[in-house]
Amino acid sequence: MSGTDYQSDTLNTFTPEPSEARRVVVLISGSGSNLQALIDAQGHDELGGEIVAVISNQPDAYGLKRARDAGIDAVALPHREYDSRDAYDGALIKVIERHEPDLIVLAGFMRILTPRFVNRFLGRMLNIHPSLLPDYQGLHTHARALADGVAAHGCSVHFVTEELDGGPVALQAEVAVAEDDSEESLQAKVQAREHLIYPIAVRWFLEGRLQLKGDSATMDGVALPPTGMRLSHADAAEELDEDLEG
Question: Are 143 and 183 in contact (CB under 8 A)?
Answer without folding.
Answer: yes
